[in-house]
Write a structure and sequence with these properties.
Strand order of the largest sheet: 5-2-1-6-7-8
Helix content: 10-25%
Radius of gyration: 15 Å
Bound molecules: zinc ion
Strand content: 15-25%
Number of helices: 3
Largest sheet: 6 strands, mixed
Distance between the termini: 13 Å
Number of strands: 8
Order of helices and strands: EEHHEEEEEEH
Number of domains: 1
């Protein structure tokens, strides 16, 4: 399911400023949220800093999909229609948009331009992950609500990445709950 997301560093919490990259598929909390929570603990040994270097700095064009992929494979993407979860071995690798045949240029997402349903905003030196949801008040109605005041009404949840795993399904907006 195409649910657009953003993986970002929180730049200024007071002003709601962030900077990061795009993530195309299944970016709701029980998809990308859970993936980020688990990936930090497993592959990156609890280091938010190390995770963001790979997810943002090393792949500045962003991602088609990182849910359910094998990080022992080299990231890349052949085609825009390399859909995840269709038994295609190409889809087992982390599907970034910069490497592989797709070859997209860097594409920075900020609160000024992020057309995303969910933003996962991290700070490197603590263990928190903010989930911002610009559709929180009106799910699935496309509207630009970043940059509005007060921006913190967009906060869906604040996750302690060192704490117990949250109930991701309960964090999904009702329309997405299975
Ligand atoms: Zn890449």
């Amino acid at each position: 399911m195409s649910t657009r997301g953003c993986i970002a560093r929180l730049i200024d919490r007071e002003r709601g400023q962030f900077k990061g990259v795009f993530h195309h598929w299944d970016s709701y909390p029980s998809g990308l949220g859970k993936t980020l929570f688990d990936l930090r603990r497993t592959r990156f040994g609890g280091s938010t800093k190390d995770m963001l270097k790979v997810l943002i700095d090393d792949h500045p064009a962003g991602w088609e999909n990182i849910n359910g992929v094998d990080w022992n494979l080299k990231p890349g993407c052949y085609y825009k229609d390399d859909f995840p979860g269709q038994g295609n071995p190409r889809c087992m690798r982390p599907q970034c948009r910069c490497h592989g045949e797709q070859g997209c240029p860097p594409d920075e997402f900020t609160e000024e331009n992020a057309d995303a349903e969910y933003v996962y905003a991290f700070t490197e030196n603590d263990s928190k992950m903010l989930i911002l949801c610009p559709y929180l008040k009106d799910v699935f109605k496309v509207q630009r609500t970043f940059g509005v005041e007060p921006w913190d009404r967009l906060i869906l949840a604040e996750i302690d990445l060192n704490g117990d795993e949250p109930n991701w399904q309960a964090l999904n907006p009702e329309e997405l709950r299975g």
